[in-house]
Amino acid sequence: MTTNAQEFARARGAMPGGVNSPVRAFGSVHETPRFFVSASGPYVTDVEGHEYVDLVGSWGPAILGHAHPAVVKAVQDAAAHGLGFGASTPGETELAELIAARVSRDGEAKPVERVRLVSTGTEATMTAIRLARGATGRDLIVKFAGHYHGHSDGLLAEAGSGVATLAMPGSAGVPAPIAAQTLVIAYNDLDAVREVFAARGDDIAAVIVEAAPANMGIVPPADGFNAALADIAHAHGALLILDEVLTGFRVGPAGWYGIDPVAFSPDLITFGKVVGGGLPLAALGGSAALMDLLAPLGPVYQAGTLSGNPLAVAAGRTTLDHLDDAAYARIDGAATTIADAAASALSDAGVTHVVQRSGNLFSIQFAAEAPTDYDTVKAQEAFRYPPFFRAMLAQGVSLPPSVFEAWFVSAAHDGTAVSRIVEALPAAARAAAEA
Ligand code: PMP
């Protein structure tokens, strides 16, 4: 048997930082990353044989719990029929129809008439942006500071010095002229949105927004924010790209679109994570008029060798099929219990905190007032999270290894799993207090 430390040392000799995605290196929590060998329901098991109650959920996809028997069987059945054909399959159409049918809201026209399947959320948002540019003949994109939409060049951009100032590269390797096609503004700030459109409205192709931001911890949209955003964008002939890669089919059957307190009309919606049921699959959708601008019908090019892979389609379809009202009720109930227990443990330990929620997604923030944007999120006492995280891990609970990530509950988090989390919280809260 090897140890996590031995695995990490070996991995660092083979892969940059020992990982294939940076957050897995546990850098911000100062802890040896766990190397997992199996997972079932709400539990994951590492190479040392330690079992943890998991609140990462593969960063979202494991909404039914890990290795859900029906999903595993669907993937096995699909594999037995061929791993992929590089050609169309009936299952792709069924998944596209399922997505279009689910994303609905009483009294509103369905925003998704056509769907394109891709393999990652990054591809979904990248394609949505190309489509918005192709449709409008404009180049500029507006995004919000602290929102994550994947790692395509133009979306790794950081705010310039003023609201309507073109952005700077957010990573080495991003050419400044590409970052300069993005305008980065503060979240939840409609004045900033109005200002940027007043200054550059004729050149803006689209605003891209996380439907309910979860990549700076949870920062809910102010009531009506998404609706106002849609109105402002549309008044200037720009599109609204609603990024539901994280929230889609997680916070409810129709994603955040279905539960936002104020109805609104996004032009393009991106999906990922849950829609692939744990395998690499993501999607974008919108009206037929817009989506049919994609190749082969239209002039906007997009393609993918593994797009609509039959194993991924089988996992996604089966996952959506099992996400009924009862499943969402279980997820919402467990999320409430855990979020409330975290808040009271932190209160008992005298730790200044807020627990912010967007549906069944939540995270803790070490701040006296609920952060509303990236600046206020960054101002929290983030140093309290590493000891909190490590104390939970030592007690067998695997939290996201960063304070800027949401906690992901699944439908498999039953009473036993939730109790193990709740019992671990007081010691973790005391560790946070002593930081
Ligand atoms: N958009 C959002 C809102 C996300 O949370 C993520 C991933 N965390 C992405 C896009 C990118 O998805 P992927 O990692 O599959 O490329």
From TrEMBL:
Pathway: Porphyrin-containing compound metabolism; protoporphyrin-IX biosynthesis; 5-aminolevulinate from L-glutamyl-tRNA(Glu): step 2/2
UniProt EC number: 5.4.3.8
SUPFAM superfamilies: PLP-dependent transferases
Cofactor needs: pyridoxal 5'-phosphate
Entry GO MF terms: glutamate-1-semialdehyde 2,1-aminomutase activity; pyridoxal phosphate binding; transaminase activity
Catalytic activity: (S)-4-amino-5-oxopentanoate = 5-aminolevulinate
Enzyme class: isomerase
A Pfam cross-reference name: Aminotran_3
GO biological process, one term: protoporphyrinogen IX biosynthetic process
Keyword Protein biosynthesis appears in the UniProt entry: no
Modified residues (N6-(pyridoxal phosphate)lysine): 273
Keywords: Cytoplasm, Isomerase, Porphyrin biosynthesis, Pyridoxal phosphate
GO cellular component, one term: cytoplasm
UniProt-listed PROSITE patterns: AA_TRANSFER_CLASS_3
Record localization: Cytoplasm
Entry similarity comment: Belongs to the class-III pyridoxal-phosphate-dependent aminotransferase family. HemL subfamily.
Binding partners and assembly: Homodimer.
NCBIfam families reported in the protein's UniProt record: hemL (TIGR00713), PRK00062.1 (NF000818)
Name under which the protein is recorded: Glutamate-1-semialdehyde 2,1-aminomutase
Gene behind the chain: hemL
